[in-house]
């Protein structure tokens, strides 16, 4: 005879799921959208964490370059002071220290600049999956 009320109709293999009620379809779409939004938020969090780590590393290296630049000026000032005041071999040592700090500052600045250029705050994976999700949502409407 008929199926009891509340029973799920049986389907033949390969039969489309078109016989669902409107409430079932809305419930399934709502659940799918909720899961989809949660997954997108999780992906965005992971991507942002990665990009902030890259940017933080670059900023730290640039901070180190600033400190090294400060020491360059400090030791260069002392070197010039000794050269003008004493004209003794200690000046050679002061120039060597100044040269070392100048090299350190240059290396840190170049490395920090490279790290900042490599960071990508546009979240390309999240953008791509959002496009795919929009296409999926459009397909659900038709």
From TrEMBL:
InterPro entries, per the entry: Phage_holin_3_6 (IPR009937)
Protein name: Phage holin family protein
